[in-house]
Amino acid sequence: MGVRLLVLTVLSVALMVVDARFTLLKPVRSQMSLVLMESYWITDLPQRLWQGVASQFGSRTELVAENEKLKTENLLLQGRMQKLAALTEQNVRLRELLNSSALVNEKVEVAELIGMDPNPFTHRIIINKGERDGVVLGQPVLDARGLMGQVVELMPYTSRVLLLTDTTHSIPVQVNRNGLRAIASGTGNPERLELRHVADTADIKEGDLLVSSGLGQRFPAGYPVATVKEVIHDSGQPFAIVRAVPTAALNRSRYLLLVFSDPRTPEERANDAAAAQEAEDRQNGESTAAPVTPATVPGTTPAPHAPASTPTTTPAAAPAATPATQAPATQPARPAAKPPVSTPAAAPATRGARE
Predict the structure, then answer these.
(1) Residue among 346, 355, 354, 344 at smallest CA distance from 317
(2) 232 phi and psi, to 5 degrees?
(3) How far apart are CA 194 and CA 207, in angstroms?
(4) Which helix (DSSP H) or strand (DSSP E) does residue 330 occupy?
(5) Reduced to 3 states, what is the DSSP secondary structure of residue 259?
(6) What is the DSSP string of 182-228?
């Protein structure tokens, strides 16, 4: 028994070293995930059964109160949605005026948390979406309140997500109030992030909202990350101590969102937007020029028909001139003004006749 225990111990240590140092066991782990998927489902079955029973036997008073609360929240959210729709349309118009890159709404997909890493020194979770669902390494993950982390390991039907509070994770952020940039790093505490290398004179204070800046080309810009909880200034230190609380419920959220961002670089997006704008301008130019050419053709065609009208206008010009000569005898003021109107019309006709 002692020899067997020693052999198994040495084998376990060797497997851990190989798994930590090399990538030889990744295919084995991917295949094992197919087998462990059933165990995840079985271990999660009691909780789902309990939730189903609890939801069936909920009291009527609690349901009525929750219904009223949801109705109130629904009305508030509808009002905010109308305002956001107007602001979104205004933003789109302003971006079109500035000839900036086209707006692309990020595609999201709902995922469910099915497991957590048992190691207390790492903050990782397992979700039920994998490589077969289009998940990629480094893909951002967020919940209803803010960013949670990114995908660090892929399997066919599951993925591992590294949370923001892990000690090996950092994310570029900026203060939503004034745009101050900083780096938020994990501390190993699920309720705390820390901003590194923030100048002691920086304009940051308690309650500031930190959002993703998008400078790392990994997380999309504008998503809430944390809220500043404490700022400690020390005159003897060049940097202030800034602690923040994540906005996402890292240890409570069960349903998550996978963000599928635009894979193009900013230069590619700018080039595509410029090409699209040029094609649109060219199309508008062609559409405006098309009605002009038919309009000019009919204007030029009556020239050949001008000589044809000379026989009708030339005889009319001679009788019209005689009343004009007799006008001083009768002195008709108004009839005398009519013949000069026809004389300019007769002038082009005579020119046409001469030609």
Answers:
(1) 346
(2) -110, 120
(3) 14
(4) helix 327-330
(5) strand
(6) EEEEE-S-TT-EEEEEEETT-S--TTPEEEE--TTSSSPTT-EEEEE
As to burial, measured by CB atoms within 10 angstroms (0-12 exposed, 13-18 middle, 19+ buried), residue 307 is middle
CA angle 22, 28, 32 (to 5 degrees): 135
The pair of structure tokens assigned to 129 is 């979406």
For 33-47, 254-268, 316-330, which range has the lowest pLDDT when averaged over its residues? 316-330
pLDDT at 55: 75
pLDDT of residue 307: 43
Closest CA to 244 of 256, 232, 252, 235: 232
3-state secondary structure of 83: helix
pLDDT by residue (tens digit) across 197-241? 999 888 999 999 999 998 888 888 888 999 999 999 888 888 999
Backbone angles phi, psi at 226, to 5 degrees: -160, 170
CB 150 within 8 A of CB 218: yes
* Cα–Cα distance, 245 to 184 (Å, whole number): 11
Element (H, E) at 67: helix 60-97
Backbone torsions φ then ψ of 199, nearest 5 degrees: -60, 145
How many other C-beta atoms can be found within 10 angstroms of the C-beta atom of residue 321? 13
Q: Is the pTM of this model over 0.70?
A: no
**pLDDT tens readout for residues 249-277:** 888 888 888 888 766 665 776 787 788 88
- Max CA distance (Å), the chain: 149
Cα–Cα distance for residue pair 290/77, rounded to 1 Å: 48
